[in-house]
Design goal:
5-stranded mixed sheet, globular, single chain, alpha/beta, 40% helix, 7 strands, 231 residues, two-stranded antiparallel sheet
């Protein structure tokens, strides 16, 4: 049990969580979004699955393998879809040498980075709609493929660089946080020393060949098609 420090020095330390797209009572099979957030750069990956069996979770982690960042740590919460012997074995084979940590029981803030992105990069788009069919999961993944480029390559994010506690003149204690200049996850990743020259070239080529206006239009069209099926 541990918490990934906010001032971690190298990319590759990922928080991971599930977003539930089913009925509030939890009955029946439904879609889930598996989301990964790199603490250092803010790089994000999302994969939708139908249900949370071992095979489907294994498939989601296999899709996560396209992430350009070498995985150094995977940090889920304590849910059984992550904490089970089958996935432990899979982690050992797929991500050799990776440190597997987990949140402390009842401490939601231990997964604070992915928790925030669950709100801004999943719920902000699809809300609390219920998705229960393979077709809807397929559409979710089409949306996430577009969001992957849009947010990692073009949307700047702030990163905390300092945090300390101060007392004002009345003796009231408050936390003071300082952020750096906003940069995209891609920029932060390219500034690091963790990428091969080939990977750097591939990422830069994708950036250069992407028309942001067309990308955003395609993203909105895909989202509208997904949500229209719920009307």
């Amino acid at each position: 049990m541990a918490v990934i420090p906010w001032d971690i020095e190298r990319p590759g330390h990922f928080e991971v969580d599930l977003v539930h797209h089913g009925a509030p009572d939890g009955k029946g099979d439904c879609a889930y979004t598996v989301q990964f957030i790199d603490v250092k750069t803010g790089w994000s990956e999302r994969i939708a699955v139908l249900g949370r069996s071992y095979r489907r979770m294994k498939w989601a982690f296999e899709q996560f393998g396209r992430c350009p960042i070498r995985v150094r740590e995977i940090h889920p919460d304590n849910d059984p879809e992550f904490m089970n012997a089958h996935l432990f074995n899979f982690f050992g084979e797929k991500f050799k040498g990776v440190h597997l940590s987990r949140s402390r029981p009842w401490q939601k803030n231990d997964n604070r980075f992915v928790g925030q992105k669950n709100s801004t990069l999943v719920r902000a788009y699809v809300g609390h709609e219920i998705f229960t069919s393979p077709h809807e999961v397929e559409q979710l993944n089409e949306l996430y493929d577009l969001m992957r480029i849009y947010y990692n390559y073009f949307q700047p994010v702030l990163r905390q660089i300092d945090r300390h506690v101060e007392k004002d003149a009345h003796g009231v204690t408050r936390a003071i946080r300082k952020q750096d200049a906003a940069r995209t996850p891609l920029q932060r990743l390219l500034d690091s020393d963790v990428l091969s020259q080939q990977t750097r070239a591939e990422l830069f080529t994708t950036y250069e060949n992407t028309n942001l206006r067309l990308l955003y239009a395609a993203l909105q069209k895909t989202l509208n098609r997904l949500l229209t099926t719920k009307l």
